[in-house]
Design brief:
The protein is of the alpha+beta class. It has 14 helices and twelve strands. The protein starts with a helix and ends with a helix.
């Protein structure tokens, strides 16, 4: 067996013997590391959970879909500059539909809050969405029951609707919703379809929505002078930027903007939200790592102090080992392994504590504890132990055996 492996094996044996001999001191020593690892793990699980939740939500927006809107998504403190912009209107959607060569679908969308009723059952705060027959192709959602609106129903403004899965479950738990008459506010509509379950997108549930023909929507829920958003699906992801520039040109022409005049509309896309989230996430991660770093630093100082005490108490043992031929390397490895072992045990305890805490936090914020977070936490524990234990171990390895044997 190689000498280094022998040293590691002996170091592990001696480390566990020392920990067993000083149980209370070992427990108190690991306390700082436990707190640090709990902090590191919870921060990691929170960041991972938020990333997954965001990615799930952002995937529903569609990487190949552009959103022509009045406000940019990342308006920040400049929102007041955009509030006086002219609304995006149906004629703009029709102009894009007629002139765009790189658009697969063009869908006007507008929404409003409404109460949905069926008999004595009422769902408050649902969203009625006015749109056209190309909506499901634009967003890539399927109809699980019935069908979506037809072009004839949209152009004729027929009183038909397609409902979200949650509305269907709440209003029609024991019967089929197809053909049933529901009330949106004070207006009656016939249900022709139910969309598949979509879940939440950026914190808003998509399953409590009712989709109706957009011309009917303007007639009963909003004036024709009201604004819309225009969702444009590009012919391919590769043509997304070209599609964006084509739409910009069409919109500028339709809104009669002279050359040199800034755009008075926004063309939003998934990438903008991703960049904004990454910026915010980076700041949160930096602050969190700084706080957890302080916890680990305090824990590391505690490990270092205890290891210096341990070296002092075992000076004679070190002298005996050196007297019978143990090289400095063996003494150094012995105390490094002892420090790393104490920290590793603290890391394991920290993970055991952090797991149920992450489940509790998950009720408020999304969390996830993948294997990578566990491995990182354990590696951090070992590294803190090696760094904290190096000076005491180096001091032990440099002791003179004669002086060490005389130590009382």
């Amino acid at each position: 067996m190689p000498i280094i492996l022998t040293d590691i094996r002996e170091g592990l044996v001696i480390a566990f013997q020392a920990i067993r001999a000083n149980k209370m001191r070992s427990v108190l020593t690991t306390l700082g590391i436990v707190i640090g690892i709990v902090s590191v793990t919870l921060m990691g699980t929170a960041i991972e959970g938020l990333n997954r939740a965001f990615n799930d939500s952002i995937a529903k927006i569609g990487a190949d879909v552009l959103y022509v809107q009045k406000f940019p998504w990342a308006s920040g403190d400049d929102w007041w500059r955009y509030r006086n912009r002219r609304d995006i209107r149906m004629e703009h959607a029709r102009a894009i539909e007629r002139q765009a060569t790189l658009a697969a679908t063009v869908t006007p969308v507008s929404g409003n809050l409404v109460n949905v009723k069926y008999g004595p059952k009422v769902i408050e705060g649902a969203i009625v969405v006015g749109t056209d027959e190309e909506f499901i192709e634009t967003v890539g959602v399927d109809v699980t029951l019935g069908r979506f609106m037809t072009a004839l129903e949209v152009s004729g403004g027929r009183p038909v609707c397609v409902i979200g899965s949650e509305i269907a479950e709440n209003l029609f738990p024991y019967e089929s919703p197809l053909g049933k008459i529901i009330k949106l506010g004070s207006h009656t509509y016939r249900v022709v379809g139910v969309l598949e379950k979509q879940g939440s997108m950026l914190g808003q549930t998509m399953d409590t929505r009712v989709y109706i023909p957009i011309y009917r929507y303007f007639k009963e829920f909003r004036s024709f002078r009201g604004g819309v958003d225009i969702w444009v699906k590009a012919v391919s992801l590769e043509e997304l930027e070209n599609t964006k520039e084509e739409i910009r040109g069409i919109m500028r022409k339709a809104r009669r903007l002279s050359p040199g005049t800034p755009d008075d509309f926004a063309i939003n896309q998934q990438e903008l939200l991703t960049q904004l989230f990454n910026t915010i996430g980076g700041v949160i991660a930096a602050v969190g790592l700084f706080i957890t770093g302080l916890s680990l630093f305090v824990g590391g100082i505690g490990i270092m102090n205890i290891m210096f005490v341990s070296v002092t108490e075992r000076t004679k043992e070190i002298g005996v080992r050196k007297a019978i031929g143990a090289p400095r390397r063996s003494i150094l490895i012995q105390f490094l392994i002892e420090a790393a072992t104490i920290c590793l045990l603290g890391g394991i305890i920290g993970l055991i504590i952090a797991f149920p805490l992450s489940l509790i936090i998950d009720q408020i914020l999304p969390t996830a504890m993948p294997l990578s977070v566990v491995i990182i936490a354990l590696l951090v524990s070992i590294v803190v132990g090696l760094i904290s234990g190096f000076l005491p171990a180096y001091r032990a390895s440099r002791l003179d055996p004669v002086e060490a044997l005389r130590y009382e």
